[in-house]
Write the structure tokens for this entry.
Amino acid sequence: MKDIKSNLIYIIDINKYMSNDLPITKVLNCYELLNTILSHMNNFDDFIRTRLVNKIFNKVVTDYLSKSVNNSNILSGKGTFIPINYCWYCNKSNDLTQINYCQDYHPRRIIIVCKNKICMKIAYTSYLQESLNIDKLIILSKPILIKECIIPRSNGTFNQATINQDYLAIIDNKIHIKVDFKENDNIYIKCCPIIKLWEINKGAVKEQFADLILDIKKNGIRYLPFFNKIDTIKIQNYVQNLIDDSNEKNLFI
């Protein structure tokens, strides 16, 4: 297809015929049509934006992002101050961008790729896979709304702490919140079980933790849609552990 934009304009024009009330056979036909046409769209940003057209567009894009990446194509993030001017996957030297590891302190690990949708998908999958399997962190699609909370200390005291809102931590297969707290002008890092934070906090913060736990129990963890299948199974098991723990403590939230 030589003119992808004209094809997209055509599809958007027939969008009115693709309502969610269509018979399943026609919905599937629309899905296959869109899947074929969007497969020719190479720019990642343009491809992602098509999700906003309707639910069928959104499903085509999400299904593509969720496809597993061959382990031989997985990239590794590197912390460096040295300028790198080529895509780490296809070696292209223009239209570059970088994926930053949000959990790192400087120098942060990065992955540099071009904006081709294949390269971007591999970069994001690599970033999420390395974060989960090495750093034991699940990067979220939307940040945690809670900014600060009270945390328990090993000496029996409590401290005010700042929450790392972009990810959840996994320790012993249980979901934790990673926080920073200050003592004697030094900054320390600690991971706290999410249920423990619900138990010890009060007022509005306690309610926010209750909402977060309930949302995870009902809808799962809202992570970026680039994980390989084996990793999504791991995450589902972490959610089940949270459900089991909350039921065991009779947390009817």
The helical segments are 4-13, 24-38, 44-49, 55-66, 117-133, 194-200, 203-219, 229-248. The radius of gyration is 21 Å.
